[in-house]
Fold this protein.
Amino acid sequence: MSKLETNTIDTISGTTNLVVGSTNSSTVTFENGSATGHMYPAFNVELSSTQTGVSDNVATKVNFNTELLDTDNAYNNSTNYRFTVPSGADGKYYIEGNVQVANATSNNMQNVSIYIYKNGSSVRQAAYGIANSTGYFNNMSIVTTSILDLVATDYIEIFAKSNTSSGDVKFESSPQSYFLGYRIGA
């Protein structure tokens, strides 16, 4: 094993990529001064205000509209509230979503579910419910995570639903409700 000590590593004049390693699978590439590869792209979004008008027992998209982090401008926070994998960023992604669901009127919720959707279909779900009809709750925070193989143009969304004995539900704003993800490798 050799050791290299230096104060500066730079690219050859006329090139923009510095590649460290060329024959193994753990190559790290820095393009134009930006770190790429593992952990990029990455996004972290939240719900800026309570999302109301959510129908009972209907899986509804959570409109995460405030970007805290979006390294590749791959999250749409204004129309379709989804992360879309950019070109050249295929790989395995860690995805996490958390939603605080509350009954709009009183303690009538019987169960809550959260879903990770990939390209319009549910691929992961977490649920919590009351086993009998003697107890209900007013709100519940529920989280789901997954590692997904994604390719360019795949898109990821978060949906949630609650079944109540009466009334509609709502999704509470941040910090209780958030959605994040990042590339963890090829």
In short: Residues 37-185 form a domain with the Jelly Rolls fold (CATH 2.60.120.40). The chain has a mean pLDDT of 83.
